[in-house]
Write a structure and sequence with these properties.
The structure is a homodimer of 138-residue chains.
Chain A: E1 7-10, H1 12-19, E2 24-31, E3 34-44, E4 50-55, H2 59-64, E5 68-77, E6 82-94, H3 98-107, E7 118-123, E8 127-134
Antiparallel strand pairs in A: 1-8, 2-3, 2-5, 3-4, 4-7, 5-6, 6-7, 6-8
Protein name (chains A, B): Pyridoxamine 5'-phosphate oxidase family protein
Pfam family, one (chains A, B): Pyridox_ox_2
Organism (chains A, B): Streptomyces ferrugineus
Chain lengths: 138, 138
């Protein structure tokens, strides 16, 4: 899939519209010099930054705070061999401003598991790319 | 999700069994010093290596051949806040042996789009890790 003759590039607005439709994406980063990837539930902030919640002491937060990461979400129909994927690339930062933390506690992504020391991570939408694939079985 | 108190680690056999159940995963690599991720359909070889198909001239092949990559697959139920993810980390290599290419042409993953110069990429299952999450809404 995703050969040059099998996909259509999506513009930024299409990408953001699709991102808003799915609850889970994957944060891609480097951990101990190796590529790492972790699924997370997320939401989009009003400025289209990707928001996720983790624990302050997590490997994820330690490895990504201040680094450029990729964030990917997708949705595929294996029967039709079709679907889309979107990748947001940008700097990840832990939200440290108390007012921002308070705002996101009300309007940001909820955690799928209870986290007493939960923090919010923002991924700036510096580069937003996406592809739609329309397979040969449509 | 995936806080210390919300997930269960999966052993290698559980990971491979789950991987075999889904058609699409995501290859994670480095492109021009930035984290990159691309969804691909895949299958498992008899030795549990991850197999995928791409074009010889693709960015994916150029960026990953000979490099250590991560390969991730998952399945989540957003209503129940539960699911699993598996990550295979290992060296990616393009299959150049004609007999191997021929074998994979019959038994390897098919392409979702037509590719005249298709090649197979193997990802060695050097490290196989996985997590199951059981959310708070079960």
């Amino acid at each position: 899939m995703f050969h040059n003759d099998g996909f259509r590039a999506l513009d930024r607005q299409e990408c953001l519209r699709l991102l808003a439709k799915v609850p889970v994406g994957r944060i891609v980063y480097t951990r101990q010099a190796l590529p790492a990837v972790l699924p997370v539930n997320f939401s989009l902030d009003t400025d289209s930054a990707v928001l996720l919640r983790s624990t302050a002491s997590s490997d994820l937060v330690r490895a990504t705070d201040g680094s450029v990461v990729a964030f990917e979400a997708d949705d595929f129909d294996a029967v039709r061999c079709s679907g889309w994927s979107v990748v947001v690339t940008g700097r990840a930062t832990v939200v440290t401003d108390p007012a921002e933390h308070e705002r996101l506690s009300r309007h940001g992504p909820s955690s799928w598991v209870v986290a007493e020391d939960g923090v919010f991570v923002r991924i700036e939408p510096e580069l937003v790319t996406g592809r739609e694939i329309i397979g040969t079985r449509n």
